[in-house]
Amino acid sequence: MKLSNWFPRGLALSAAAAVLSVSTAVTALAEDTVKVGVLHSLSGTMAISETSLRDVVLMAVEEINEAGGVEVDGKNYMVEAVVVDPASDWPLFAEKAKQLIDDDVAVIFGCWTSVSRKSVLPVIEEENALLFYPVQYEGEEQSLNVFYTAASPNQQLVPAAQYAIDELGAEKFYLLGTDYVFPRTANKVLKAFLLKNGVPEENIREVYTPFHHQDYQTIVADIKQFGAAGDAVVLSTINGDSNVPVYTEFATQGLTSDDCPIIAFSVSEDELRAMDTSKLVGHLAAWNYFMSVDTSENEAFVKAFQQYCEENNLPGGAERVTADPIEAAYYGVYVWKNAAEKANSFDVDDVREAVYGMEFDAPGGPKKMHPTNQHTFKPVYIGEIRADGQFDIVWESDGLVEPDSYSMLLWEGKEDQIPAPSGGGK
Amino acid sequence: MRLSALIPRLAWLPLVAVALLAGLVHAQSDEASTPAAAPAAGEVTDAQIVALIPALDDNAAGPDAVETLASFNDVRVLRLFERLMANELHAWDGRVVWAPADAARELDDGAEVVDVKDPLAEDAPFFVDGQPAVVPEGDLDSFRGKRRVRRLVQQRLSLLGLTVSDAEVRYDSARDVGNKGQAEALPTLRDMADNDPSARVRRVAEESAFILIADGAIPGATPEQRLEAIVGLGRLDSVRGLDLLQQIANNPDESAAARAAAKASVAQVNNHLRFVAMVNNSFFGLSLGSILVLMALGLAITFGLMGVINMAHGEMLMIGAVTTWACFEFISPLLPPAWFNWYYVIAFPTAFLVAALVGLLTEVSIVRFLYKRPLDSLLATIGVSLILIQSVRLWKGDNLGMRLTWFSGGWEIMPDVTLAYNRLFLIGLSAFCVLMVVVLFRFTRIGLLIRATSQNRAMAESLGVNTRRVDMLSFAFGAGLAGLAGYGLVTLTNPTPEMGQGYIVKSFLVTVVGGVGKLIGVVVSGLSLGFLEKFIEPIKIMTKPFEVFDATWAQVFVLLLVIAFMTRRPAGLFPDKGRLADQQTGEATPWGAGGRAGRWREVVLGVVMLAIGLVVIPGLYAAGMISTGDLQKYGQWVTFAICAIGLDLIWGYMGILSLCQFVFFSIGGYCMGLYLVNHGPMDGTNANIPRALFVVMSQVSGAEPPFFLAWFRTMPGAVLLGLLIPGLFALLIGVVTFGSRVRGVYFAILTQAITVAVWLVFQKNDLMLGGTNGLTNFTHVLGFPLAQPDDTPWYATTRFWLYIASVLALVVCFTLAKLLVHSRFGRVMVAIRDDETRLRFIGYKTWAYKAGVFAIAGVFAAIGGMLYSPQKGIITPQQLEAFASIMVVVWVAVGGRGTLWGPVIGAILVSLLYDQMTSLAPDYWMLMLGGMFILVPLFLPGGVMSLPAVVSGRFTPRKAAAT
C-alpha cells in the first residue's frame, strides 16, 4: 500500500522537531561539571573574526580545567564548553542563546556585532542569564546581564582623536565607516569631540559605505582631494572585509601614511593577518591591547594561544596572532571564574555582584571591572602598523581609563535623562 | 615623503650630504660651498650627538634637540635622522642602537639575536666595553621618538630631499615643504621651479612656492608677490592650495584685489576638479564595469548558454581566488625572495584549471542530471556552494592573507589623475577573457558545437554531436572563467570562503540585463552598470529629510534603473532566441494533487499535521516537555510555512519564480515591529520616544521619533498597514512587470534586484527604521507581556497564544490557497504555467491574474511576517538579504512545489535541520545541509512530497513544459 509506505516517515520527520528539542531540554547536569556557552559565528560573514574568539575561549576553559576547574562550595567543577554556531544570522543568535540557557549554561561568552548582541539581549534579560561581550562597541547601553570586557567609546575613540590633533597635527578629519550602528555612533562621538576642540565643521567629512563594499575608488579619490594639503587624517570605522580594498585603494592611488594617516578602530592583528601589511606601514589603530604589549604575561599568553592553535590543528597554527578582542574574550572567562569562586556560587546574581570592582591580571596588564556600570577599566594604546603585521605602540594612556556606558560627549547637560540599566535579577 | 627611497642612498651620503646639510640649514654661510670645506664636522664629537638622542623621545626637549643636531651640519646626524624615520633605531639597556630591519640572525640553539650597530656610523658594530654588542632580539625596544619631534626631523629631511638625484624624492620633498609651511625652502623651491629637469617636479615646486607666499609664511613678501602667487595657484590648478585660496577669498581682512584674485583662482581650481572628476569617474566606471564583466562572464556560459541556474558560480570564483592564495602560500616560498611575485604567473593557469576541474566534477556528478529541470539545478547548486564554502573553511580557515606587490601604485596621466595599476590589470584581464571567449566561440570547432548544442540540442545530437562532452566542456569552461575572475579579484581584496556570496547576485544581474545567452550582452551591460554606479555615486540626490548620497544610494539607483529598464526591454539588451529565452521558470509539477489516492493522502496528512500542530505540541508544552523557547521556535517555523505557501502559489502553480518573497514577509514584520516598539514613553527621559526605539534609534537618528510611528500605535492600525503596504507593493510590482511581459528568469532576477534595493534602503542607519540593528526590545503585545515568569501556567503565556495564532493563520492561509487553486481561477493559474501564450490568445488578461496572485502571495508572506516579529523579538535588515528570499525557494523546492503541502513541510523541515545542526555540528552543518540540497533534487525530484511515489517506484516526472 502506497500510503503506509510513506506515512510513518512523514510523521517521523515532523515529530523529529519535538523530540530533538525535548532531548536537549531534559539533559541533566553531571555532578561536577559546570557548562558555559560559546556563542560565536563559525560560518557566514563574521566567521573570519569570531572563530578566533571561540578558539581562545576554549583555550581558557582548557587551562582552567587543567588547573583543577572552578572551586565552588568546596567542590571542583570542571568547565564544559557548549559550542554552537549562530552562523552570522542575527536572529539565530537569540535562538541559540535561548537554547544554551535551556541547556543550563552558567554563563555565555559570545557575540561580536552590535546587532547580534541586541538580538540576544531580550533573551538573557528575560532569563536573567549572563553574557560576557568581548568586542569594542558604540556604548549607549548598560544591561545588568552583560559584562562588556572591551572598550566603550571613550576608551578608544576619544584618545585617538586627541592623538590625531596633538601628535599627527591633523586639521581635517575624514570619518569613514561601514553603515551600521557602531560607526554611526562612533562618528557622532568623534564629531562632538572634534567640534568641542575647535575643529570647524567644514573640516570634518562623514562618509559611509554598505557592508562588504569593495569599490573604494571614488571615496579614496575624495580623500585625496580632501587631504591634498597634507593635514588630514582618516578615522576609520570600516568593518571586516571592506578593509582590504580600502587600504589597497589607498596605496594604489599613491596615498601613504605620511600623506594622510588612517587611524582605524576595527583593524587588529587578526585582520592584518589577512592583509599585505607592506602597504599599511605607518597607519594607526587604537585599541586597549596589542600583541606587542611588552610584558612577560603577554608573552606567555601569545605563546600559549599559538601552541593551542597548533596542537588543535586550527587554521594558522603556530602563526596565529592575538588581538584586542581575543584578549578581552580570554580574560572574560577568568573574570567569570574568579567571580564564581569569590561568590562561591554559579548563580547569576551572586556572580554579578562578585564581578563588580574586581581587579585582575590580564595578559595585557592589570585591569579592573567597573564597580557599577558593567564595563571594564582599560588602558588605551595607539599603535602604528609595522611591516610584519604587528603594532608599534606609539602612545599609551596614563594608567587605566574609566569606561563610560553612555558617552558623556553625547549626554552633556542631559545626565539626568540617562536611562537606568536594563535587565537584572528577577 | 618616501623615506624608503632615501635609505638606499645612504651610500652616497658621505660625499654629498655634508654639503647639503650645511648648504640648506645655513644657506647663507659660504664656508659650506664645497664638500671639502666642511670643517664644522670635525668639531662635533659622537658623544655630543649621542647625548641629544634621548631628547628625541621627549615632547618638551625634542624640538630644541632637533635644532641643535641639525646645526651640527654633520653626516652622522643625517644618518641618525634617516634611521629614526625608518624605525630602525632601538632602545637597549639605556642606549640607542641601530638595527636594520633584517638584522636578526638565529643562533645554533634557536635563539634570535641581533648584531646591533652604531647609530651614527655608516656601518660599524656598536661597541660595548670594546666588544661588538650582540643583543637577544627580545631585549630591543623600538625607539621612534615622539610623533611631534619626528615631524620636525621629517621637515629637515624634506629640505634635504629637495636636491637629491631621485626625482621621486624631490617631488615628495617639494610637496612636503610647501604643505608644512617651511619658509626656509623658498629659495631652493624657486630655483627648482625654473631649473629642475623633471616637469612634474618643476610644477610641484612652483606650487609649493606659491603656497608659501600666499599663506603669508614668507615675512618679506610684498602684496604684489602674494597676488602673483594667488593667481599662480589658480593657473596651476592647485588642489593643494584650494583650502588656502578659499580662506583668502572669504577673509574680510584681505585686500579686495587679493580676494578677487583668490575667488578667480578658486573657480579655476574647481573647474579643474570637475574635469578631474569626469576623467576619474570614467576610469572608475570602466574599471568597475570590467570587474562586473569578468565576474559575469563564466555565468553567461553556465547560466546564459546552458540554462543552469548556477548558484555555485560565486564559489567557482572563490575557488579561483583560493587557488591563487594557495599558489602564494605553497609556491612563493620556493621562489627566490626577489621573485616571490612570480607565483602570480603560475596561479593564472592553475586558478583556471582548478576551478574548471571543480566545475567539471559538479557537472558530471550533479548538474548533468538536471538539465531538463533547471529549477532543481538552483537547489542543487546552492548545496554545492554550501559544501565548497565549508570545505575551504575547514581546510584553511577564513583568514587567507597573501601578498602581491606587482600592482601597487599607479600611472599619473595628469595632475590629480592616477590610473591604478591593479585596475589597469583587471581591465586587461577582463578584455583578455572576453577575447578568449570570442575566439573560442567564433573560431574553434568546439565553440561551434557549443553554440549548436545550445541553440538546438536535438538537432545537434542527430547530427552526431557528442552533446554530453559539449556540456561537460562548456560547464567546466564557465567555471574556469569564474576562477579567473577570482584570480583577478585578489588584487583588490582577500580571498575568503564566503567571498563568492558577494558576487553571485551582481553576476546574475549583469547576465540577465545583457540578455540571457548573449555574450556581447554581458560586456555591454557590465560596463554600463559600472559607469552608472560610478557616475551616480558622487551626486547628492537630496539632503532632506535624510541624505541621499553615497555608495549605498548609488547602488539603489542603479538597481532602480535596471528595474525600469527591464520593464521596457523585458528580454534584456540583446534578446536571444536560445534555449532559455522562452523557457518558463516552473515546469509542470511532477507530483500533482490529482487522483483519488492523492486526495486520500491529503486528508490523512491534514489530520496528522493539524493534530501535531494543535494537539501534540500544545500537549507536550502543557506537560512541560517543550520549553517556551522551543514553542516560540515552532511558531516561527509556522510563519515561514505561511510565507512559503504564498511562493508556492506563484511558483508552483503559476510557474513564476519570485526571488523577493521574503521582502514582503520582512515588511510585514517591520510593520508589526513598529507597533511592538510603540509601548509608551520611557520613564523620566525624552517623552517622545518609546523606550524600545530609544534603544535603537536615539543616538543614531536624532531624538525625534519618526513621523510614521504614530500610524502604528494601535494593533488594528499596524495590522491594516502590515497587510496593505506589502500587498500594494506586491501588486505594484506585479502590474508593472507582468504588464510589460517580463517573464521567466528575467522576472526572477528583476525581483532579486528589488530585494537588494529594499535591503540596501532598510540598512541605512539614518532612515529611522533602526538601521542595521533593526527593531527590537519588544515587551508587550496587546498589553500582554511577552516575558513572563517561569511559573506562569502554560495556557496563560502570551507566547503560547502567539504560537496558536500562527498555526491558525497557517490553517486559514492553507485553506484559502487550497480553495483558490481548486477554483476556476486556479485552473487559469495552472494554464498560465503550462502555456501562457495560448491562454493570452484565447483572450485572458494573463498579466492581471499573475499580478493578483503575486499580491496574494505577498499578503500571505506579510501575515507570516507580522506573526514572526513578536515571536522572534527582533527584526533586522538581514531578513531582507537576497539569500533570505532564496531560502523560501529552497523550502518550497525541498518540500515539493505545486502541492501546497510541500512548502509547509519544506519550510519546517529545513528550519528544523538548520536549527538543530548549527548546535549539534557547528563545524559540519553546512556540509550536511548542502548534501541534502543536492540529494533532494537528484533522488526526490518532486521534493519530500514525492517520497511515497519514489519509494513505490511510481514516480515518472512529466515532461518539462518547454525546453
Structural account:
- The complex is a heterodimer of chains A (426) and B (963).
- Helix content of chain A is 40%, strand content 18%.
- Chain A has 426 residues and is α/β, with parallel strands linked by helices.
- Chain B is mostly helical and 963 residues long.
- Chain B is built from 36 helices and 14 strands.
- In chain B, a hairpin with a 2-residue loop joins β9 and β10.
- The interface between A and B is large, with 120 and 144 residues.
Distance between the termini of chain A: 57 Å
Q: Helix count of chain B, per DSSP?
A: 36
What coarse outline of chain B follows from CA principal-axis ratios? elongated
Estimate the helix proportion of chain A, in percent.
25-40%
Number of strands of chain B: 14
The number of helical runs of chain A is 13
Average pLDDT rating of chain B: 85
Task: Provide a compact summary of the structure.
The complex is a heterodimer of chains A (426) and B (963). Chain A is of the alpha/beta class. Chain A contains 13 helices and 16 strands.
List keywords for this structure.
heterodimer; A: 426 residues; alpha/beta; seven-stranded mixed beta sheet; six-stranded mixed beta sheet; 16 strands; disordered N terminus; B: 963 residues; mainly alpha; three-stranded antiparallel beta sheet; 14 strands; disordered C terminus
Write the layout of secondary structure elements.
The complex is a heterodimer of chains A (426) and B (963).
Chain A: H1 2-25, E1 33-39, H2 47-66, E2 70-72, E3 75-84, H3 90-102, E4 107-110, H4 114-127, E5 131-133, E6 146-148, H5 157-166, E7 172-178, H6 181-196, E8 204-209, H7 217-226, E9 232-237, H8 243-252, E10 262-264, H9 269-272, E11 284-287, H10 296-311, H11 324-343, H12 348-355, E12 359-362, E13 365-369, E14 376-377, E15 381-385, E16 391-396, H13 408-411
Parallel strand pairs in A: 1-3, 1-4, 4-5, 5-6, 7-8, 7-9, 9-10, 10-11
Antiparallel strand pairs in A: 2-3, 11-15, 12-13, 13-14, 15-16
Helix pairs in contact in A: 2-11, 3-4, 11-12
Chain B: H1 3-6, H2 13-25, H3 40-43, H4 46-52, H5 62-71, H6 75-85, E1 89-92, E2 95-98, E3 104-106, E4 112-115, E5 127-128, E6 131-132, E7 134-136, E8 141-142, H7 147-161, H8 167-179, H9 186-195, H10 199-214, H11 223-235, H12 242-250, H13 256-305, H14 313-330, H15 343-365, H16 374-396, E9 410-414, E10 417-420, H17 421-443, H18 445-455, H19 457-462, H20 467-489, H21 501-514, H22 519-536, H23 551-568, H24 596-622, H25 628-653, H26 661-676, H27 691-701, H28 715-739, H29 744-763, E11 775-776, E12 780-781, E13 784-785, H30 798-822, H31 824-842, H32 846-872, E14 874-875, H33 882-895, H34 901-920, H35 925-939, H36 947-951
Antiparallel strand pairs in B: 1-2, 1-8, 3-4, 4-7, 5-6, 9-10, 11-14, 12-13
